[in-house]
Structure formats: C-alpha cells, structure tokens
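Bit of a strange request maybe. I'm writing a small parser for structure token strings and I need a real example to test against, not something I typed by hand. Could someone generate the tokens for this chain?
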Amino acid sequence: MGALMVQGTSSGAGKSTLVAALCRIFSDAGLSVAPFKSQNMSRFSYRGRGFEISRAQAVQALAARTEPSPDMNPILLKPRGAARSAVYVGGRRLRAMDAAEYHGRFAPAGGLEAASAALARLLASRDLVVLEGAGSPAEINLGGGADIANMAMAERARAPVLLVSDIDRGGSFASLAGTLLLLPARHRRLVRGLVLNRFRGDPGILEPGFPALRRITGKPVLGVVPMMRERLPAEDSLDRADAEPFEWGRRQVAALDRRLDSLARTVGESLDMRAIRGMARGR
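Reply from user aminoacidic:
Good idea to test on real output. This should exercise your parser:
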C-alpha cells in the first residue's frame, strides 16, 4: 500500500495515540505494518537488544503486532536540561548536543540522512508504514531543513497526511486553518484530511463548522475522535501524567494490548476509514 502520515497542529495533539490505533486497524486488516517517527524528544524510552528508542514507537510496534526496531525511531533526543539533549541515532547514543548544534548542523545533514535511510528500509519491507510527525509542521522558525520530522518525511515516503488538532484545548478550527496557511503550497497539497481529537460531547455540535473549514482550507474533516478513557504510556517530555516507567512484563503488555484494541475500535468508528484506506492506497 505504501505510507500514511499523522501530523498535528501542536505537541500533545494525540498523534501517537492515533498512529497506534491506525497501526492496529491496518494490522487487523491483514497488512504488515510498521510505525515510524524520525525524531522524538522523550524522557521515556524502550530498551531492546542493543538499542534504545522512544517508548511511544515501541507501543506502536505492539499495536502493529511487530517487533520494535531502531528504524522505527532513528533519532531519539533525551532531554538533559539547559537546552541540551543526549542524541541517539539508530538506537545508540551519539553525544549530547545543544539546540543550536542539533537544529543548525546535525538535523539538516546527518539527522536527515539517518532518518531517510531508516524510512526507506521500512517502506521496502512492509505493506504500510504509518508515520508520526513531531510538534507542528508549521514551525516557520525552523527553516533551512531543520524540521526533519514532518513534511520532509512525508515527501520522502510520498505519504498523504492527516492533520490532527486537540479540540479539548480549544481553538481547533483556527489551529487547523492557521497551520495550513503557514505551510508552503507543496506541503499543503500533502494534507488530505483533518481530524478533531479528544472531543467531549455530541460531535454533531461541530458539524456546522465543517463546510466553512473546507471552504477556507480546501480539506475535508474526516472525523471527530472522542475523549477516550484508555490512555497509552506517556510519550514525551511534555506529559507529566505518567512519569513512572512502564514495565514490559507479560501481564502489563497483555493489558496494554487490550487497550490498543479498544482504542482501535473507537478510532475506527470515529474516522472515515474508507477515505483513509483510499489515502493509504494512493487514491
């Protein structure tokens, strides 16, 4: 099939959860699926045999019913304070870098090369790769190729993009429209649909705004995902709700697997999966 990408209007929009749900949905359909996030800043990691990646991509691998691998998160940034992070490439620690060195020198060169190579290997070995962006694709302060987590990867994977916003925070219509406004035209074309995430209440209340949003952006709303009780282990350094390590024991993994099934059912019922399957097939 190819590739599909989930990007967000901000950090914490629910990208990781939606990618996990989509991995399970497509795995249930009999496809060989892998998650991918080129760059993840996270305090929470998964240690495999001889490698370390973000915990979120390990959870997504479980959702896809496949083994975690360094290719699923080729660059891991572990915050060390004072705007410095330990940089892991291909699952192994490279060195600590400050923000200026990482964004100014490493990301546009070695980082992009490592991420692109990992993505190519996954695309060659799976029916479908579900990519996750980082932060927002409209961080226009990160020019010159420093943003290697969003549209740069979508272009390399030829992946249609779902743009997701957290409506529980408020301002989702403006966030979606504003994000698209700030994107270059070639990147706007990659966005094929919009998703409103974490809504409390009757989604019918939102529907009168969908035609106006489509007139403004040219993009359809492909679903409203409700606020869900099921929570996955925290993904990144912004989430303080789950600071405890996740134990990868048999019982804990079995419970997490059941949560992933429940998440997939809810997301599958909330989104226009026919349209999304068509996107993944390149239609």
